[in-house]
Design brief:
This protein is mainly α. It has a domain of 236 residues: P-loop containing nucleotide triphosphate hydrolases (Rossmann fold, 3-Layer(aba) Sandwich). The protein is 63% helix and 4% strand. A five-stranded parallel beta sheet has the order 2-3-1-4-5, sandwiched between helices. The protein is elongated, with a radius of gyration of 30 Å. The chain starts with a helix and ends with a helix.
């Protein structure tokens, strides 16, 4: 019996060696197919081996990697879970599975896997690097920087780690530090392919307002790497930032021709077309992006402002039911705003209220309110510059300046669109020129004139323009400055039913208006602005006009003519049809102004009385504004 057992053991060992040899040969063959670009044949080999019961770490990982690259995340995850169960001390399959979960925005599980990988092998720099990527996606930049520094310490020669560090420094506006890292990487002769380095360098330049250098870098990348789609995407973004939408669209379309499978290209085109007023095209591009990646939550947010998904039940069902657990805050905010907008369009106002509140509660954890800072700033400006006498003297030799001021969502975009029907008008949009000038202004310095600085800057944008509209709404606090220093200028104050205005601000996913996340804060800001402008409107009677949005949309022909007459322009019926204006619009109202003037939104606040309780309480105690509660 002993001899028989020995013989059986030898046969078993021979069979195992033959099986291992067979597996190795097949895996080598699959790798050779991959090297030659024949992905299909490699996939067939991996699939057959798995189906025939072969088990090895190399097989599971290689097949999962191939499946991940083919966007078959479901199969990749199944293989990696089997691999982790069988080979728990290996590290790479934890990293790859975490990467897939990060793409799927399942951040909690991804973090758990990466922390396990770090525990198994604390000196594996790749797991630390991927953990940094995860923290970046969670918008935890400080933690991401701390983690990538650990990865660089473990492997200082990996340029990809340094590239991520430069990217993170860029995200916190440390542009010079980021640029130093990128310049050092670009000078490294060991790095052969430098297009990613140049791409990030161009982004740093753009964010640092060095648009010409950024554009030059991107054009050079496209020249030397004409098939590199990301360069087209970034160049399109650059032109968008410069408000060159036709050029932005052209470049984005070229990028799609080169790389038609990149959903972000279609997202870009959706945004560009929306601002150009090409709403149907915008909808088509956004939906195309979603068909490629259903987790592009920005598309849902943008689409929901003008489309209710009634013809796309699959996308609507996903939006209304996608779990929020594990998603980053920005995506949760986008989903909640999108859901709220859909419920609003469906007249389900209770559900809409819950989602608007949820979205703003999450936003408030990211952005601290700036209400007190704005109020303090406006009080200081009033103290420094306000006089009860008007100083402004018109000078017809200077260009006509029209400052459109007021609260956000007060009808200002409609007004700007109406005024820009005049072909002599150049609309500057929501520029920061006057606030930037006044930030460093010292009125005690003799002969200091902010007007000259302002004119020099805007004349670079449109040297031949005779009339400019500046729609930075918070310029309302600079009314005394405008009156004192800006010759041949006019101020138009936009007012709207305060409760409709407050609600409209709260319903919008503003990024640059942090006080918009809280009804009480918005109301207090509205009242401060109202009380201040009550003083200024009584003082600056010659050059300040009150534009009442509610009156304009109720009786456009009469009210718009009042504005045009006050400006001293020749009247045309075209002013009552702003929807025909082909101008580009970059504000939250970019879709609404494409429609004929209507009064459907008036007193819309009454559908949200529970949500507006803090505003109702405050406004009911205001002598001027309490009448709006009973209207």
């Amino acid at each position: 019996m002993q001899g028989f057992g020995d013989n059986k053991s030898r046969n078993s060992n021979l069979a195992k060696r033959d099986k291992d040899s067979f597996l190795k040969n097949k895996l080598d063959l699959a790798k050779n197919f991959l090297i030659s670009g024949d992905v299909l044949q490699a996939k067939k080999i991996y699939s057959r081996l798995v189906n025939e019961g072969f088990i090895s770490y190399d097989l599971f990982f290689s097949y999962a990697f191939l499946s991940r690259n083919s966007s078959n995340f479901k199969l990749a995850k199944e293989l990696l879970i089997r691999s982790i169960s069988r080979y728990p001390t290996q590290v790479d399959h934890y990293i790859l599975l975490a990467e897939i979960l990060r793409v799927e925005k399942d951040f909690a599980k991804a973090q758990e896997l990466l922390l396990t990988a770090c525990k198994i092998n604390p000196r594996n720099s790749n797991s630390v690097y991927n953990l940094s990527l995860l923290y970046r996606d969670l918008n935890n930049i400080e933690e991401a920087l701390s983690t990538i520094n650990k990865a660089i310490k473990l492997n200082p020669n990996n340029y990809v780690y340094n590239l991520l560090k430069a990217d993170l420094l860029k995200d916190i506006s440390k542009f010079k530090e980021s640029e130093l890292i990128l310049q050092k990487l670009y000078s490294d002769k060991k790095i052969e392919d430098k297009k990613d380095i140049l791409l990030m360098l161009s982004t740093v330049k753009r964010l640092d307002s060095n648009f010409k250098e950024s554009e030059k870098i991107l054009l050079d990348i496209i020249k030397f790497y004409p098939k590199f789609g990301q360069a087209y995407l970034n160049l399109s973004d650059l032109y968008f930032d410069k408000k060159l939408l036709i050029k932005a669209k052209k470049i984005a379309l070229e990028g799609i021709r080169i790389e038609p499978d990149v959903p972000e290209m279609f997202v870009n085109l959706g945004v560009i077309c929306r601002n150009l007023g090409e709403i149907n095209e915008s909808k088509r591009y956004f939906l195309t992006a979603l068909s490629m990646n259903e987790k592009l939550f920005k598309c849902y947010n943008d689409l929901s402002t003008f489309y209710d998904f009634s013809d796309h039940p699959k996308e609507l069902k996903y939006l209304l039911n996608v779990p929020l657990d594990g998603l980053n805050r920005q995506d949760i905010i986008r989903i909640c705003f999108a859901r709220a907008n859909i419920y609003h369009s469906q007249k389900k106002f209770t559900n809409a209220s819950k989602n608007y509140k949820l979205a703003n509660d999450f936003k408030s954890k990211i952005y601290s309110s700036n209400k007190n800072l704005l109020i303090e700033k406006s009080i200081k400006i009033k103290k420094d510059f306000f006089s009860e006498k008007e100083f402004n003297l018109n000078n017809d030799k200077n260009p006509e300046l029209i400052f459109i001021v007021g609260m956000p969502r007060s009808g200002s975009t409609l007004l700007e669109t109406i005024l820009s029907i005049n072909k002599q008008v150049y609309d500057l949009g929501e520029i920061e020129v006057l606030p930037d000038i006044m930030e460093n202004f010292d009125f005690l310095v003799k002969d200091r004139d902010p007007y000259e600085d302002y004119i020099k800057l805007i004349k670079k944008l449109a040297p031949q323009a005779k009339i400019f509209t500046d729609k930075n709404l918070f310029n309302y606090m600079y009314c005394p400055v405008i009156d004192k220093y800006f010759s041949n200028s006019k101020i138009i104050l936009c007012l709207r039913n305060p409760l409709d205005n407050i609600l409209s601000i709260y319903r919008e996913n503003f990024i640059k208006i942090p006080f918009s996340t809280n009804i009480k804060e918005i109301t207090e800001m509205y009242l401060h602005h109202y009380d201040l402008m009550k003083i200024y409107s009584k003082t600056y009677t010659n050059n300040l006009f009150i534009y009442n949005y509610d009156n304009v949309v109720s009786n456009p022909s009469v009210e718009i003519k009042k504005i045009i007459d006050w400006l001293g322009w020749e009247w045309s019926e075209e002013y009552t049809a702003p929807q025909n204006n082909k101008r580009t619009v970059f504000t939250a109202s970019s879709e609404q102004v494409r429609n004929p003037i209507h009064s459907k939104s008036l007193r819309g606040w009454k559908k949200y009385t529970n949500l507006l309780e803090p505003a109702l309480e405050i406004i009911s105690n205001n002598r001027d504004l309490k009448k709006f509660i009973t209207q």
